[in-house]
Amino acid sequence: MGADGRTEAALDGLATRYGLRPRQREQLARLVTVLVADEHAPTAVRTAGPAVDIHFADSLVALELEVARAARRVADVGTGAGFPGLVLALALPDAEVRLVESQRRKCEFLERLCACVAIENARVVHARAEEWRAGIGEHDLVVARAVAAQAVVLEYAAPLLRLGGTLVDWRGQRDPREETRCVAAGEELGLRRAEIRHVSPFASAQAHHLHLYLKVRETPSRFPRRVGMARKQPLSG
Q1: Is 237 domain-assigned?
Q2: Diameter of the chain by CA atoms?
Q3: pTM for the complete prediction?
Q4: pLDDT tens, residue by residue, 214-227
Q5: 110 and 124 Cβ atoms separated by less than 8 Å
Q6: How far apart are CA 55 and CA 88, in angstroms?
Q7: Looking at the 3D structure of the chain, how many domains does it have?
Q8: Residue 120, SS3?
């Protein structure tokens, strides 16, 4: 089987695994075509096969979570090239997905991508998470993948979640000491760790985990702190 055949088979596998409709399957194929062809795409993964695994499968694995399947308002903070938020928007047509990105060039790329693939329920938000006041308290689900240290992600996400909403943070190898520090940081923000789930989005994936934090109390009004403070002085110390 050639490279194109392997890519098509991988897309078929994802469509079967996650119950995607034929139109969604075709949108995935279009998405990988545009991603690979666009020389301005803000990703180092520029071939179809790896892109399907590293970007698409790794994004769609969130659909194994009921909180993701049921979400109607989703924010992807630091979305970069649009993952996981853009793929989740494609898979969840009844959800409104905000792709939050601070770099204008990446936002322009995301606008082109949404238009080319006809993903109508995704909206690009050109803002830093700490400064996006319109998003505070608005979301059932916040997702973050390869954005920053987890304590930083917690601080970005907590204000954006409604009470009862969930953060899903993509992580690799587990670090028990860091996880303990982040539980304390979450408590300060009104978040409680609900689960750390090991996932296998594609055959060669190793040490992939989704960290779930539930918003159990309102986030104190001193958050979000001003831009840059979460990275300079993370709550976990």
Answers
A1: no
A2: 57
A3: 0.96
A4: 999 999 999 999 99
A5: yes
A6: 11
A7: 1
A8: coil
